[in-house]
Amino acid sequence: MKLFQKPDKRIIFGALAIMLAALFWSFDGIFIRPKFYELSATLVVFLEHLFGFVVLSPFIVLSWHKIRKLSLKSWGAILWVCIFGGVIGTITITKAFFAAIYGETTFATVILLQKLQPFFALIMAAIILKEKLSKRFYFWAVLAVIAGYFLAFGKYGLHLSEINLFHHAAFYSLIAAFSFGSSTVFGKRIVNHLNFKSTAALRFGITTFILLIIILFTGDIHKVSNLTTTHWNFLILIVFTSGAMAMFFYYFGLRRVPASIATILEMFWPFSAVILDYLINKNILNTVQIVAAVVLFICFYQVVGEGKLKGLTFKAKVMKGKGRGRRLGFPTANLDRKDFDIPHGVYLVKAKYNGKKYKSLMHFGFVETFDEAPRLEIYIGNFKGDIYGKELKVKILKRVRDVKKFETVEELKEQIKEDLKLVR
User: Fold this and answer.
1) pTM of whole model > 0.85?
2) Phi and psi, residue 395, nearest 5°
3) 313-423 sits in which CATH class?
4) How many CB atoms lie within 10 A of CB 163?
5) Can you give the residue ranges of every domain in the chain?
6) What whole-number distance in Å separates Cα of residue 338 and Cα of residue 365?
């Protein structure tokens, strides 16, 4: 077994995007969020989402033809992300940090409990998304969490006497950890079926609406007058750093890597926070932090190397379609599963029917060229016969490419011919 697994380029770009988002969040937690500590946390979160939605809203218009075709399962995931990630998680972590700034509790309490987020995400990814990763991955994941703690607390050490588990800020931190961890999982479900730009826009739009109802009910809307010019300037800065821009990059990355890996990559937060502290405040890293940073980067590389989707097996029945594949010269079998949790794309698979295995090509996602709803269909190599109503067992070998929109049918046929070289 190789010690170092080499990740593919698609996963590398996704990982870098998530780490960039984590960098923005570090900047927010250290230098921006404290500027608002005297204001209502709910009002601050509402305004940052409102401003972000203004920037991202055009993506909803551009992708409305896809958004309206989303399944109830996908809409449920969107609401979960908005309620837990956008509202509950953001408000509770903001309240927790405000409590630490006021001196009501320690930052150690907030950080320690909030960093339970990866454990919530890993458990839910296994249960909800059925993500199956190797023992190697879990080894490196646990090591990454440990390294993250040493990096965050390595300067002065983590003294258990500083942890106040019975303060309300501890409760807020724990709720935030669950909210953000679960949002990673349900966010992955969304970007499997919708482009990352529209996903970010929907999250900000629906969250803004929910928060508006809350601040109208609580009366916090009237506290807008308490904002100074400095506050408004920082809110604009949030949009183009830790707010809309960070989520834009985050969902770009989440579309390309499993949720289990994304939650580990989010631990770039303690590393980037320490680096920013060094660059801006001139606080030098000690030996423990330097070693922890090196270990954390090795862990990042290792978990990214485990990110290739392969080995997933499922069963589905063949159903009648529109016969378009046959008319194009490439007959495909339409399968009755249309909404399961893998990214849209074209896959090399093995199809098993009647005890025999066939190297095949599978398409899952929107039929872009003809602007149709998501579909799961398979071209079975070297097979002839009528299998309508029959059950196939399909094993995914690897992802070949994204689903594309072709300007002409001829361009589509040429791409299909190129893809089919993999099964002949």
Assistant:
1) no
2) -120, 125
3) mainly beta
4) 17
5) 9-305, 313-423
6) 8
